[in-house]
Design goal:
The protein is α/β, with parallel strands linked by helices. It folds into 3 domains: about 90 residues, 3-Layer(aba) Sandwich (Rossmann fold), CATH 3.40.50; about 230 residues, Mur-like, catalytic domain (UDP-N-acetylmuramoyl-L-alanine:D-glutamate ligase, 3-Layer(aba) Sandwich); about 140 residues, Mur ligase, C-terminal domain (Protein-Tyrosine Phosphatase, Chain A). About 30% of the residues lie in helices and about 25% in strands. It contains 15 helices and 23 strands. A 10-stranded mixed β-sheet has the order 8-7-9-6-12-13-14-15-16-17. Strand 4, helix 3 and strand 5 form a beta-alpha-beta unit.
Length: about 475
């Protein structure tokens, strides 16, 4: 079958493209913005990428068009598909119909940490010899790809014996497509669902937190009684979701006290920066982790993944050592390099909570004397709409300096955020000005962290190149 994927450079749709190619389909695709790491992965797989949504980019011999949720009515390619009666589906539906049948699906949901937790879980299952399939919203450093079918260690084709082999999917609450406004995760019908946390986000499609909780409740309804819900026991918003109705045994994880229920899985921090911790199940020490990731939030991500492993029969103590070699995901506090004593990081954080927890982990590592400089692009739909504007300054409080990219199309005035940060912040109109400002500001010993969920005009790597050129 020949597929054309609209929105192919997105992290989810790029993963769908990789799975389709691995299953033997002829795959092509188009997108408005194509940038690494997904563009690099797709090119390496030999998938033809076409810039823009010109209907001419869709080959006339395509059997089906898979449409990403970034496209809506009025888009030229979408109108072409409808007007010409082409067969179409969403990425979530395609995954459900072509990959997940017969698999033990483990779905990881939550406002924060989905990508990292999904990757940790896949890595632990790999260490257990399960050879999982996965679809991750980013390129996993340890696998080199964002998605694979899995289930056959010999990589024989065609694949056989996939029944009951695990498939790990990052389960997003964002809507499915222009023709299906349900959250993507309701399509996956997992055996095990991990609920990492829940906060207000996606202000472009959800009016309030209660609307998101309703979608999470719908997701909970799809998990069978023989399965498991692995839930952040510290999160009051998730406790409210479970109170709406729950028909599946629940495993709760956390570091601090739970929300009215005991924690089945706990961590005891051995280092303030989260780089070392003990793992406890039902109050008994299972083992100790020393790994390269930082922050309390990543300890929570690991706990959720470990509890999910336990839920599918993995001996957790036997796979704990694998975390010492875990390399996470590209663009999750990814150290791009160092030059002139300055470390340059690329990070996907785009919500105030994620920004704050990331900086907390880095601050714990560098100490009070180390300087942290943040280059921030408010690019997500919620950020652009100003839904998180009031929380931005507090989330950046641990940075010593902030360069705020205030593009002309930003729908709110960043002056209040800059003002709240006092002399440690400045706003600039474009990426070129941001790089000039950072060059003048950064000095030996600094950690410069670029935070955006988009391409950021290639600023992180451009800045590192400027430093190396002196």
């Amino acid at each position: 079958m020949k597929l054309h994927i609209l929105g192919i450079a997105g992290t989810f749709m790029g993963g769908v493209a990789a799975l389709a190619r691995e299953l033997g389909h002829d795959v092509e695709g188009s997108d408005q913005a194509v940038y690494p790491p997904m563009s690099t992965q797709l090119e390496r797989l030999g998938i033809a990428l076409r810039q823009g949504y010109d209907p001419a980019n869709i080959s006339p011999d395509c059997d089906q068009v898979v449409i990403g949720n970034a496209l809506s009515r009025g888009n030229a390619a979408v109108e072409h598909v409808l007007d010409h009666g082409l067969a179409y589906t969403s990425g979530a539906e395609w995954l459900r119909d072509k990959v997940l049948p017969g698999r033990d699906t483990i779905a990881v949901a939550g406002t924060h940490g989905k990508t990292t937790t999904t990757t940790i879980l896949a890595w632990l299952l790999e260490a257990a010899g399960r050879h999982p399939g996965f679809l991750i919203g980013g390129v996993a450093e340890d696998f080199g790809v964002s998605a694979r079918v899995g289930g056959d260690p010999a990589h024989a084709a065609p694949r056989r014996g996939l029944e009951n082999s695990p498939f790990v999917v990052e389960a997003d609450e964002y809507d499915t497509a222009f023709f299906d406004k349900r959250s993507k995760f309701v399509h996956y019908r997992p055996l095990v669902a991990v609920l990492n946390n829940l906060e207000f986000d996606h202000a472009d499609i959800f009016p309030d937190l209660a609307a998101i909780q309703r979608q999470f409740h719908h997701f909970v309804r799809t998990v069978p009684g023989r399965g498991r819900l692995v839930v952040n026991g510290e999160d009051p918003h998730l406790a409210e979701v479970l109170a709406m109705g729950c028909w599946t045994p629940v495993l709760r994880f956390g570091i601090d006290a739970g929300q009215g229920a005991p924690l089945d899985w706990r961590a005891r921090l051995l280092a303030d920066d989260g780089s070392a911790f003990e793992v406890l199940k039902a109050g008994e020490v299972v083992g100790e982790v020393r790994w390269p990731l930082l922050g309390r939030h990543n300890v929570m991500n690991a706990l959720g993944a470990l509890a999910a492993c336990d839920a599918v029969g993995v001996d957790v103590a036997s796979v704990l050592p694998a975390l010492s070699a875990f390399r996470s995901v590209k663009r999750r506090m990814e150290l791009l390099g160092e030059a002139g004593g300055i470390g340059v990081y690329d990070d996907f954080a785009h919500h105030p909570t994620a920004i704050a927890t990331t900086l907390e982990g880095l601050r714990a590592q560098v100490g009070a004397a180390g300087r942290i400089v943040v280059a921030m692009e408010p690019r997500s739909n919620s950020m652009r709409l100003g839904a998180h504007a009031a929380a931005l300054a507090p989330s950046l409080a641990l940075a010593d300096a902030v360069v705020f990219l205030h593009r002309p199309e930003l729908e709110w005035d960043a002056g209040a955020v800059v003002g709240a940060l006092g002399g440690q912040a400045v706003a600039v109109p474009d990426a070129d000005a941001l790089l000039v400002t950072l060059q003048a500001m950064a000095r030996a010993g600094d950690r410069v962290v670029f935070m955006s969920n988009g391409g950021f005009d290639g600023a992180p790597r451009r800045f590192l190149a400027l430093l190396r050129d002196g």
